[in-house]
Write a structure and sequence with these properties.
Helix content: 25-40%
Number of helices: 2
Order of helices and strands: HEEEH
Strand order of the largest sheet: 1-2-3
Largest sheet: 3 strands, antiparallel
Oligomer: single chain
Mean pLDDT: 88
Strand content: 35-45%
Structural class: alpha+beta
Radius of gyration: 22 Å
Number of strands: 3
Low-confidence stretches: none
Length: 101
């Protein structure tokens, strides 16, 4: 086999697809099995709709679920923790709101 043929067989074509727009999430739910982790990012938006001549408040929910292996979820966790540590070192502790009981 010639060197050119060997080089051609080792080449890999790569294509990256991007979503049309970023998804802003102001909430999420998470559930997991022993094999995968599911994070459902959600966006809750309020708006006023005109229904039957009346202005009615409407809450719109958009979802963007992400499903990953437990290994990738752990890598994400480690990356997020390192990033949050860096932000807190530069800006102080990030305070979480109290959760209702």
């Amino acid at each position: 086999m010639s060197d050119k043929m060997a080089d051609a067989e080792q080449q890999t074509n790569e294509e990256t697809e991007h979503q049309k727009e970023a998804f802003y999430a102001n909430n999420f739910t998470l559930w997991a099995s022993e094999w995968e982790v599911n994070i459902d990012f959600a966006q809750f938006l309020g708006r006023m709709d005109n229904i039957g001549g009346k202005r009615i408040p409407t809450i719109v929910t958009k979802h963007q679920p992400i499903i990953m292996t437990a290994v990738v979820a752990k890598q994400l966790y480690q990356t997020l923790m390192a990033q949050i540590d860096s932000i807190e070192k530069a800006n102080g502790e990030i305070k979480l709101p109290e959760q209702p009981k």
